[in-house]
Known about the structure:
Helix content: 55-70%
Shape: elongated
Amino acid sequence: MQQQYEGYKDLADSLKSASALLNLERKSQLNQDIITICNHLVNPSFRIAVFGPFNHGKSTLLNAMLGNRTLPIDLIPTTGASITVKYGPDVRTRIMLVDGAEIYRSGTEILQQFATLDGNRQMRKDVASVEVFCPHPFLETGVEFLDLPGTNDRDEQDNLVREKLLSADLVIQLLDARKLMTLGERENLRDWLLDRGIKTVIFVANFLNLLEPDEQKQVQNRLLFVAESFRAELPPGFSNLYRVDALPALRARLKGDVAAANSSGLAAFETALQNIVGILQPDRGSVRLPRVQAIASQIQLSLKAKIDPIALEIKSFDEKQNSKIEIKQKAANLIYKGFTTSIGELRDWLELPKLLTKYQADAAVALAENKFKDWQTNTLKKDLNQLQLAAAKWLYQAYEFFQEERPQDLLIPFPSEPQVILPTKPNNSDDLSEPGSIAVGGGIGWLLGGPVGAAVVGSISYLLNKNIQKQDEQLAKESYHQEVAKLCITAIEDYFSNFSSQGLSILNEYERKAEKVICFEFSQYPVEVTNKRENLQQLQNGFNRFLQELENVKILSNYQPYKEIPKFTNTNRKYSPQPERFKISPEKDPVIKQQQENTAKNSGRRVESVSPPPPPKASPSPRKEEVEAKFRDWELNEEIARMKAEMRSPGSQTGKQQNSTQSNKAPTQPKSQTEKDKITRAYGILGLQAYASQAEVKQAYRTLVKKWHPDLFVNQPQLLKQAQEKMHLVNDAYTILSDK
């Protein structure tokens, strides 16, 4: 029991927390109901309220049950406050005033001053609560009685009664056997009891003794119909209608006349009441939680009405922001792809084997002909500049687009010109007609024009083609001009080795600096949007906590929790493209493949993002639960629209009755053959027999929506087209069968 009590306390706290999120007006009906039910949840006593219109004998019945004139009774409406009767060793009365003052008196005479209507039949404004303590054994079991003011007299009294009924575990409604229930009493049964989860109700018919015997039987049958139609939730085997002649019962109790008390119906009623309470009292949760559920539904509906517009507003703002971000993101990715492709081409070009294959022969010849500087300017530099500009233009384009960091020019310098020192000329050489052995200024121009010059140039081509580096055993047999050619080839190889090494190093550094150029920063959200987002986060988290607390006490909800919202931080963030963002297979793109190989070989570094990228990605295919949730939302909207249409139409109550009657009849037969064929096809599309009920149509439509909703196939183009066509047919069929 203690554990259950703690659970109710947690539930009460949760109700208060959810109410605080709504900022309800203090005097609003929902706020008053929440306060009442929270106080009731933690009340260990089992409370029985006596309820009914004025002058129905409520206080008289209670006095009869208590065995004395504890409560004020009269022929005019007297009870002007809600009087709680509790157990006490002697009869005492405690009055709590609004200002906090307490009046504690022996007996109950003080009730005439504070708990009855004044001369103008108005309730006192300064009374907060009225309690009477009485030494009755039934009260000693933890039971409290609640004597309520009569209804159908003043709005102020009705409001008080409506509020207090929510704090009752069991309601005794007095009926006047002399007249049928009024329209107001029937409305109170629905609005004050049923709609608020109060179904533990016992009806007590008073004044039946004032009718003739034949009339008594007829009236009792009518009252029995009223009681049975209420669908009270009492323990099995107990009736919810009893006869008690209240005034004769009180007189019999005051005189100690047991037989008269029995004939008045009081004894039978008291026995049944005590047995019912004995069953319900140990498990008060089964009685109280339905009231909580009714209020919880109002809270959830109110929270949804507050949350969803804010969520929609923020979603709209985010979509606009994300649209801008996505454009920048696409631009960054495209620029990065172009840049990495150009860098890859330049890196590939700078690889030593590629440089030697493409340029070594011409460079060695140019060196032998003393034209290396011209060749470097007109050929090598021209090719390098073209590749450098191709890479650098992407960074300038990024700067123009994002205005982040201004890029630097990509400049790869050339090494110094190759230097060649000629070997000593053989003495027995017959093929050299020119003297001298030292090349001047890094060239061998003195050989040009003679037979040796031509021989050296020819030897360069021959040696490169024959791969003289692998023919070490022939070195001693080489001619002088071949030896000179080898020196030229080696000098060029050293030149390109320095050029490649330095160039790749500069390129790696340039690529690293490019990360600060090809990126963009997310600006902070406006303060107004940030505040709304934090408010939304608080509301949704509170809504989810409330649902969880309801689930803990087995209270079902018609709503699903909101998806968990990550904690929002409004800080500037940067987006930088990363290699893995591009889904181009290296096997299909040789440039990227070579770029990856070169990067691994020369630097081993990878491009990383400066900061985690926050922009939203493309939404994945929704789960079936999300599609079902969408359907439920649509279904709810359809139902609300129908209800609004009924409310706007004249004679809506009549319309409802007609609709209800018509829904039980067979569908109207279509007039023309065309209409018949159209409806038959619609049933076939939904997989139904002809003239199936609307419930079957709706269920079939629900099943097909879950199966063929296009959102389920967004990543499967062929199935998506099929699903769209199928849903088009299903929607048309459902519309036809709903409108007929």
